[in-house]
Structures are given as C-alpha cells and as structure tokens.
Amino acid sequence: MFSGIVEEMATVVDIKRYQGNIDFTLTCSFARELGIDQSIAHNGVCLTVVKLDGDSYVVTAMKETLDRSNLGLLEVGDRVNVERSMMMNGRLDGHIVQGHVDMKARCTDMRDADGSTYFTFRYDADKELARRGYFTVDKGSVTVNGVSLTVCGPTDDTFTVAIIPYTRQNTNFKDIRPGSVVNIEFDILGKYIARLQHFA
C-alpha cells in the first residue's frame, strides 16, 4: 500500500529482457536501506526488490505489468518516481494507492497556470470499464506515474491535473510533454462503489 507521495526519482542504470519479463536495475539514495522482497512503487507500479548491490537494486516486471504500464518504454538513464510502501503508523498525505496500475494514458496538453502547470491526459475508456470503476470524478483522486493528484475537468476519457512547481521539480513530471505516456491508477474507493452498484 502506498500514499502517492513520491520520495524521489530513481535512475534506470540497466535493463535485461528475458522470457517476456524485464529486470530493471536502478539507483537511488535509499538503495542501501532496502531489503530483498521489499515493495517499491515505480511510476506507480508496485514491484518487488529481487537483488541488492550497493547503491543499486533490481526489480522484475512481468508481461502483464509491462502491457498495462509504461515500464516497457523505459530506457537506461530515464528517471522513475519511487515510493516505499506506507508505514501503518504514518500520515496518509496523499490517498490510498495500491500500486496496481490500471492502464496507460497519454498527455494531450500542458499549459501554464501562473507558475503551476495544467496537464491533460487521455485514456482508453468504454462503458464496461466505467462500470468497473475506471473513471475520474471532479475533485476526486487519481494517481499519475505514482503521484497522488486531484482531478479537475474530467470527461469520459480525459482528465486534467494541476502540478505545483515543487511537484514538477521533484518528480518525473518535469519530463512529461504532450505525447508522453504515463501510468494511471483510478481511485480504489470508486472501484468498490462501482462494484457494489453492480450487485445492487
């Protein structure tokens, strides 16, 4: 379980592909504090640490994860938003994030807002996905590349988020431009409500 509050950006230093899976080697400031089997969100995707080596660590992404997320697009040198799992005695500063990315979205627009930046994203949407809770609501929560954000101006297949300068500087939102592919996780509370309505 995560909160969507990114700790820092890790850097991809090696990529190994095999049998449909990918091993990513990354470096970050807290690598030496990690343990094998620990869960870390990478651009919002929960992955397990499988190897440690000094200031670097290795995680494996399987085919299902690669199909649903932007991790398969990563290259050596790319920056990835990382967050360690939430401590149960800590504050929930963002919202409840599972680390189970639902799908990819593409940035369609970015515009200045007096120092902050509005980003608009489009995703594949249909009525069946909406019935399962794959949608956004105005002032609701959404996770984009692991960042907990508030939705504004949603449509059936788009939503906009406002990024303050601090968030843009300290996450890989600094690298996002129109055309960039991001990971999105819809609010788990909305999914449960949609599921309950299905049986009502």
Question: Would you write up a description of this structure?
Answer:
With 200 residues, the protein is mainly beta. It folds into two domains: 8-84, Elongation Factor Tu (Ef-tu), domain 3 (Beta Barrel); 103-198, Elongation Factor Tu (Ef-tu), domain 3, CATH 2.40.30.20. The protein has four helices and twelve strands. The chain has helices at 63-68, 127-131, 165-170, 188-199; strands at residues 8-18, 21-27, 39-42, 45-53, 56-61, 79-84, 103-113, 116-123, 141-144, 147-152, 158-163, 181-186. The strands form two sheets. The protein has a six-stranded antiparallel beta barrel. It has a six-stranded antiparallel barrel with strand order 7-8-11-10-9-12. Strand 3 (39-42) and strand 4 (45-53) form a beta hairpin. The radius of gyration is 17 Å and the shape is globular. The two termini are 28 Å apart.
Task: Using brief descriptors, characterize the structure shown.
200 residues, mainly beta, Elongation Factor Tu (Ef-tu), domain 3, 2 domains, globular, EC 2.5.1.9
Mean pLDDT: 91
Beta fraction of the residues? Answer: 35-45%
Q: Biggest sheet, strands in spatial order?
A: 1-2-5-4-3-6
CATH topology of the largest domain: Elongation Factor Tu (Ef-tu), domain 3
How many structural domains in the coordinates? 2
Q: How much helicity do the residues have?
A: 10-25%
- Tell me the overall shape: globular
Number of H/I helices: 4
Structural class: mainly beta
Give the terminus-to-terminus CA distance.
Answer: 28 Å
Radius of gyration: 17 Å
The number of strands is: 12
**Which architecture name of the largest domain does CATH use?**
Beta Barrel
Q: Which parts are unreliable, with pLDDT below 50 for 5 consecutive residues or more?
A: none
H/E element sequence:
EEEEEHEEEHEEEHEH
Main sheet summary: 6 strands, antiparallel, barrel
The top level CATH class name of the largest domain = Mainly Beta
